[in-house]
Amino acid sequence: MAKEIGVASTLKEQMLSKLQIPSNLAIEENARILARYASVCQTHGIVPIVEPDIDVVNGDHSLERAAEVSEAVLSSVFRALAEYNVYLEGIVLKTSMSVPGKKAATFASTRPEDIAKATVTALGRTVPPAVPGIAFLSGGQTEEQVKPF
């Protein structure tokens, strides 16, 4: 149906792991790949779903570290999107919430309010207001855990 009315979307996912933090070069190259993908999509009338998939499930990282990595990755992605002249009003950002790793000592005790605050802070610092929509991955949380959001 969507294709019939001239609207299409597509997804290109790039996985960045927190267990072994990628180098700045790896983050920047993945951002450029996403930007090239988004540019090609828009050239062909397709709405790109930009998904810098940050691995928030695995590891023993803290909530603060998750937010720090999210900010670094998203900043790089939006710099690259600007370099490739991607029309931000014509993308959907699909990203993860900032959550501690499942092996973190604080995983079970981290409150939804803290996750929400860390996530919104990271997004507010990096995502330009022109982006019309953000879709979230669960970050390894169960349906019950994400309901408060």
- What is the global morphology? globular
Oligomer: single chain
- CATH architectural name: Alpha-Beta Barrel
Structural class, judged by helices and strands?
A: alpha/beta
Keywords:
4 helices; globular; 4 strands; alpha/beta; disordered N terminus; four-stranded parallel β-sheet; 149 residues; TIM Barrel
Structural write-up:
The protein is an alpha/beta fold and 149 residues long. It has a single domain, classed as TIM Barrel (Alpha-Beta Barrel), CATH 3.20.20.70. Helix content is 40%, strand content 18%. It has four helices and four strands. The protein has helices at residues 24-43, 63-83, 112-126, 143-146; strands at residues 9-17, 47-55, 92-96, 134-137. It has a four-stranded parallel β-sheet with strand order 1-2-3-4, covered by helices on one side. Helix 1 (24-43) crosses helix 2 and helix 2 runs parallel beside helix 3. It is globular, with a radius of gyration of 16 Å. 31% of the residues are buried. Mean pLDDT is 83; it is low at 1-9.
Give the helices and strands, then pairings.
Blueprint: E1 9-17, H1 24-43, E2 47-55, H2 63-83, E3 92-96, H3 112-126, E4 134-137, H4 143-146
Parallel strand pairs: 1-2, 2-3, 3-4
Helix pairs in contact: 1-2, 2-3
Short précis:
The chain is α/β, with parallel strands linked by helices. It is built from four helices and four strands. 31% of the residues are buried.
